[in-house]
């Protein structure tokens, strides 16, 4: 994860790259992958997600962690990286309140989903 500014707490930008082999230095302002902002635990999740070819049911089998918990973790990672899902099924959209009622998602998760849905309609 990239360091945070000790004064304001915002993420610092990369302005210099150095080759360890021959000491060549390149200066400028470089863009960084959203993956660079993830912590080690998040990276482990992403690696397992890729190795299981995006199959959360397979991840559930391997880890013993419930499908909806894994799905929540994936949603939080997408949010942390500033990414939005390409498409969500209407079944999931209609299901928010029943998931909340059953305790599958938290009130905070439900509010975030509804807020995101409202933003998509307005944006």
Automatic annotation (TrEMBL):
Protein name listed in UniProt: DUF2089 domain-containing protein
Domain DUF2089: 5-36, 38-83
């Amino acid at each position: 994860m990239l360091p945070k500014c000790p004064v304001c707490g915002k993420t610092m930008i990369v302005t210099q790259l150095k080759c360890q082999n021959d000491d060549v230095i390149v200066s400028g302002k470089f863009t960084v992958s959203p993956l660079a902002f993830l912590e080690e635990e998040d990276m482990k999740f992403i690696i397992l997600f890729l190795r299981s070819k995006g199959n959360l049911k397979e991840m559930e089998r391997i880890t013993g962690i419930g499908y909806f918990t894994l799905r929540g973790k994936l949603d939080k990672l997408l949010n942390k990286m500033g990414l939005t899902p390409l498409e969500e099924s209407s079944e999931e959209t209609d299901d928010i309140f029943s998931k909340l009622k059953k305790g599958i998602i938290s009130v905070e998760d439900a509010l975030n989903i509804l807020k995101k849905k409202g933003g998509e309609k307005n944006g």
